[in-house]
Amino acid sequence: MSETKKLFIKTYGCQMNVYDSERMSEALGASGYVETKTPDDADMILLNTCHIREKAAEKVYSELGRMKAFKANKPDLKIGVAGCVAQAEGQEIMRRQPAVDLVVGPQSYHRLAEMEAKTRRGEKALDTDFPLEDKFEALKNRPKARRAPAAFLTVQEGCDKFCAFCVVPYTRGAEVSRPVQRIVDEAKDLVERGVREITLLGQNVNAYHGTGPDGNEWGLAQLIWELDKVDGLARIRFTTSHPNDMQDDLIDAHAHCAKLMPYLHLPVQSGSDRILKRMNRSHTSDSYLRLIERIRAARPDILMSGDFIVGFPEETEEDFQATLDLIEEVRYGYAYSFKYSTRPGTPAAERAQVEDAVASERLQRLQALITRQQTEIQQGMVGRDVTVLVEKQGRDPGQMVGKSEYLHAVHINDCTAQPGDLVNARITEAVRNSLAGAQI
Ligand code: SAH
Ligand code: SF4
Ligand code: F3S
């Protein structure tokens, strides 16, 4: 056994990066690393990065600048860059910041232990290949820690959709689905380690088409029904879905699978058909709205969430108004909205850009509308009974916090439950960004 070393991981970007950070920690466990919550005592710092918008990518370089100063007093400290900036910029990162010892892409991190050993020999290590072996399988037998009640499980990676603004098909590669049995085994292992709720992850999770135990290709709904059989697993969620891959059997699962939670993140990006076409989204505003009608017919209380981009090249005030109209019609419980960010190498980067001040102003209007809807939906929860998966202690003594079926954070005073318990609660108050409930 090698001596214990400390690993500090800072995670940016989407939930897939959160999942990957956990796997990277396991990968380095083989070299004697345990995670630490502060960079101060770390022997290795890993930044797991995001390339989706320019700001996200630039943040990495400013953070690396700080790390370099930090490293000046700690000559044995190794600095690594992982994730989507690593994939997109590889060698360029080492050129821009010589303090970086290691660069690893999102498909290669199962080889981290060897890479780390290389850095200890004073060499630089870079691996951004899309290897043929399965990284999840390669990490399968690593020691794993006890887990919090809610966990992520990546079932599908990559994207073949090539929306005109997006880097994901380049940083994460083509769509690949993991086989059903391996996902079920991982779910069972998570449950044994204390997990009650699993969120299935993928850049296009509902395009999932993994090999089933019968040798046929299974869709996401079939996978969900298989996970429904796992004893001790109480809740299933999935994210992120594409409107074009919302099959009938998945909608039906929302009606009939009790473990599948009534929450759906279904990004639309814009409400203007002209812009949707320019974005290469291959759905229209109307087809999206009709789809939501069908989903709500199956599960009337489902809480919808979405993503929006404002100021996409050539977006007019009229196009933007169509987005606001769509939002009015859907009523979102949550939404993530962004100003369009030019990503070099994507088709939209070449087009006439909307002035920044115009985009900022539109973003403000859109966010005001979303906040209003979100608040109304939260207020509407008052008096309703929900089930809360308790996650941890709250700020006040005797208070516990967790998530409702609808992913609302709920805090319960004088709560007798422990983390991992499901408790029934009546919502008494909607406070900013969370709900207060009383145990019933
Ligand atoms: N696969 C998912 C989400 C991928 S990225 C999907 O298709 O919905 C998450 C969100 O980031 C996107 O939904 C989009 O709203 C936003 N995004 C992606 N590229 C962007 C860009 N160049 N500028 C601004 N926002 C962007
Ligand atoms: Fe990006 Fe579009 Fe793929 Fe989502 S579907 S990851 S937005 S290219
Ligand atoms: Fe960012 Fe990569 Fe996720 S670019 S959003 S971390 S897939």
UniProtKB/TrEMBL annotation:
The keyword RNA-binding does not apply. Its EC number is 2.8.4.3. PROSITE patterns: MTTASE_N, MTTASE_RADICAL, RADICAL_SAM, TRAM. Keywords: 4Fe-4S, Cytoplasm, Iron, Iron-sulfur, Metal-binding, S-adenosyl-L-methionine, Transferase, tRNA processing. Residues 5-121 form the MTTase N-terminal domain. Residues 379-440 form the TRAM domain. Its cofactor is [4Fe-4S] cluster. It is an enzyme of class 2 (transferase). Gene3D superfamilies: Methylthiotransferase, N-terminal domain, tm_1862 like domain. Belongs to the methylthiotransferase family. MiaB subfamily. This is tRNA-2-methylthio-N(6)-dimethylallyladenosine synthase. It comes from Planktotalea frisia. The gene is miaB.
